[in-house]
Amino acid sequence: MTASTTTGRTLGSPIYGTLDKIPGGLMVIPLILGAIVGTLAPGVLEIGSFTTALFATPMPMMALVIFATGMQITPRTIGPVAGTTGTILLAKSLIPGLLVVALGSLVGIQGVLGISILAMLATFDNSNGGVWIAFTGKYGTRTDRGAYVASALNDGPFFTMLFIGAAGLGSIPLEAFAAAVIPLLLGIVVGNIDHRWTEVMRPVPNIVIPFFAFGLGTGIDLSAVLTGGVTGILLGLVVTPFTGGLTYFAYRFLLRRGRRSGIGFVAGTTAGNSLATPAIVAAADPRFEPYVGVATVQIATAVLISAITAPLVAAWVLRRNGALDDPEADELPTEAESATVTT
Fold first, then answer.
1. What pLDDT digit, counting tens, does each position of 31-66 carry?
2. How far apart are alpha carbons 109 and 103 in whole angstroms?
3. 25-29, 128-132, 277-281: which has the minimum mean pLDDT?
4. Using an 8 Å Cβ cutoff, are 310 and 267 in contact?
5. What residues does 2 pair with on adjacent strands?
């Protein structure tokens, strides 16, 4: 990738060009760098002012991407967003959860290979919304980005508690869910009122992804891989092919996304918030108390590993199918539709 100069010569792109050649590199590499800094020198980014705001607080930039995504959603595309969200929840949360519960009915809550049913559920039935937004911001369509709502729904202990039979002990925090979707809804309103703003905001995801990916990385402790041991690493390596694979098949056969179905693999992650799930579940059902400590470090390892493997696998599948170019091609409005909107 090159950039022209005023003299007609071209300059190489040693940073962007290198990252762009790596599948998911614009997100994965900054995330890994952030994890290294966050593990080895966590205080460096806490000096305050603009340094902390830019490198250690990813939430505002993630919110901006969500707002910009909402601006790309019209009444014509709301249906596909809702359908994609439901499909992701089915493939990423409901089916894995039911399969883990079925395994638990055979082997007991202690699980297998030192991985408890509690650890499996808390790892498999939720997804990392930050990774989803970052990846779909570059390689997905506005429908894919809008489906981040699935992460807002499956984040936390609700599905895990539901699956282990603790009915009534968990609930979806409606206030937290509302806070997660308000930027999207505001973006939809503004984008449909002023189409010019929609065009202005279209490049936002590609601009901010490397920055908030680095910020997400600073919250990942690389030492979790060591403390999680072999079982934690095994659990982390299974997340993407298992739950991401299910979502891939859902994208391919239910959503009929064809060569772009590889996007589904990026759902194969574990949310950072799931670290609190074992303790919450044990407080509701003391039978799980003996598994909390080990499950927590195993989940921490899965959070780290899946945040790296999911975008790499998804990008590899997309590239293999020739789907890394022009992800919005299937959703861009026609000239007639654009004229209708602007008038």
1. 888 888 888 887 888 888 888 888 888 888 878 887
2. 9
3. 25-29
4. yes
5. 12
CB 9 within 8 Å of CB 193 = no
**Can you give the pLDDT at residue 185?**
86
The neighbouring-strand residues paired with 169 are none
301, two tokens: 């390892």
**CB neighbour list of residue 194: distance below 8 Å, 6 or more residues apart:** none
- 337: how many CB neighbours lie within 10 A of its CB? 12
Alpha helices, DSSP H, located in 9-94: 16-21, 25-40, 49-55, 59-71, 75-89
Distance of CA 330 to the CA centre of its chain: 22
Q: Residue type at 113?
A: L
Amino acid identity, position 174: L
Whether residue 126 contacts residue 211, with contact meaning beta carbons closer than 8 Å, is answered with no
Q: Read off the tokens for 267.
A: 């759902």
Per the rule left: phi > 0, alpha: psi between -120 and 50, beta: everything else, 27 is alpha
Q: What is this structure's pTM?
A: 0.76
Length of the chain: 343
Q: Tokens representing 253?
A: 């056969």
Cα–Cα distance, 300 to 39 (Å, whole number): 13
